[in-house]
Design brief:
Largest sheet: 7 strands, parallel
Number of strands: 13
Strand order of the largest sheet: 3-2-1-4-5-6-7
Helix content: 25-40%
CATH superfamily of the largest domain: Glycogen Phosphorylase B
Structural class: alpha/beta
Strand content: 15-25%
Number of helices: 14
Number of domains: 2
CATH topology of the largest domain: Rossmann fold
Radius of gyration: 21 Å
CATH architecture of the largest domain: 3-Layer(aba) Sandwich
Length: 384
């Protein structure tokens, strides 16, 4: 297949750890023999806030996306289209895709469908979670998101709860498919936690809690910080490791300065280097306000590490008996769950959850993409 992927959630020279799950998906599709090309809009603010720290991804066209900051979010697809559509059409002058796939419903997905309509090929969306569960709370943006979903020839939702949410927005069930979040089991698998801690220079006698992700409001780090003030007082001397970067990093650094012995900001870590961090931790924490099926929890489980997470989105479908879910934004419940975990002996392990292999899940997605291309069943709904 020839696939054109449109997404701003993709690694760039300024943000090499952004959207690594999308990079992994593209890599798997290419490994299976598909010709996949990416057009990735870069927010203009990255040009001023982020310095170049890595090489750009191969077979990827980066286009600066200009828009008015903090204003008119429901119209961002128009700004992105104005910036990105010409670049996408230039990229397809001598190469016609069989399908255009957009990740993140709005504005990326809306623009992806505009490009698909212009090229006369099917357009599909891969929805992430917050684009359906949080952004639709704004009435004006909800209207655009619903119209975008209805205009897609197929919507792929990560996990059944997200599929149900898309259908509840009025999308015909026949146009919504569930995709399973797989994990690369060659890299994410259990090994000695003692050896992992030694390799990373981490203490062996303290319980370790690990958070991984983008430091943005939806991840609930403010809730975690309020909870950790109490957890840090426990005689077990628990240690919280924060891996990642984002707009809330400065605030987290100020909070960590007050609890310097119990919090470490590790910074961004390449996905290939993450397995030992999971193995070294006693649990993964994820107090998000919205999620699909989080990679961080899937990867942690594959390494033998349970989680404490908000019961949102597809988190509830993981069904791990030794992990704990709590209501989102409930500081007391999160504190109680963390104290329960850190009072267990450090590095206490258990049997590993049998997570689906990524190659198998990508093969299933490829079959579904092929069916969209071959079916000829196209929606007549207009793209916003």
């Amino acid at each position: 297949m020839r696939l054109l992927v449109i997404t701003s959630v993709f690694p760039s020279s300024r943000r090499p750890t952004k959207g690594t799950f999308n990079r992994a998906l593209v890599a798997e599709l290419r490994a299976a023999g598909d010709d996949v090309r990416v057009v990735s809009p870069i927010p203009w603010t990255d040009l001023f806030r982020m310095r170049v720290i890595a090489r750009p991804e191969p077979a990827t066209t980066y286009q600066v996306w200009w828009y008015p900051p903090r204003l008119a979010h429901p119209t961002h697809h128009r700004w992105m289209s104005h910036s990105v559509l010409p670049a996408a059409l230039r990229a397809t002058q001598s190469w016609q895709p069989d399908l255009v796939l957009g990740y993140w419903t709005h504005p990326d997905g809306t623009v992806a469908l505009r490009i698909a309509k212009r090229l006369g090929v099917p357009g599909a969306l891969l929805v992430g979670g917050s684009d359906i569960q949080l952004l639709t709370r704004n009435a004006a943006r909800r209207k655009v998101i619903v119209a975008t979903l209805r205009a897609a020839d197929r919507v792929f939702a990560v996990g059944s709860p997200l599929r149900d949410a898309v259908i509840a927005l009025g999308v015909p069930p026949t146009r919504v498919s569930t995709v399973v979040q797989g994990v690369d089991r060659k890299r994410f698998h259990p090994r000695s936690p003692e050896r992992a801690r030694a390799h990373l220079g981490l203490p062996r006698d303290r319980p370790i809690v690990l958070w991984v992700g983008r430091m943005v409001p939806v991840k609930g780090l403010d809730v975690l910080m309020r909870s950790w003030i109490e957890v840090a007082r426990d005689p077990a001397r628990p240690l919280l490791l924060l891996i990642g970067d984002g707009e809330e990093r400065a605030a987290l650094e100020r909070a960590a300065a007050k609890l310097s012995d119990s919090i470490r900001l590790v910074g961004s870590i390449a996905n290939d280097a993450l397995p030992d961090w999971y193995r070294a931790a006693d649990c993964v924490v994820l107090p998000s306000r919205s999620e699909g099926v989080p990679n961080v929890l899937v990867e942690g489980l594959a390494c033998g590490t349970p989680y404490i997470a908000s019961a949102v989105g597809g988190v509830t479908t993981l069904n791990d008996e030794e992990s704990i879910t709590v209501p989102p934004e409930d500081v007391a419940a999160l504190t109680a769950a963390l104290l329960t975990r850190v009072r267990l002996p450090p590095m206490s392990r258990r049997s590993v959850v049998d997570m689906p292999d990524r190659q198998e899940t990508v093969a299933s997605l490829r079959e579904q993409l092929r069916s969209v291309i071959d079916s000829g069943d196209r929606t007549i709904e207009p793209v916003p």
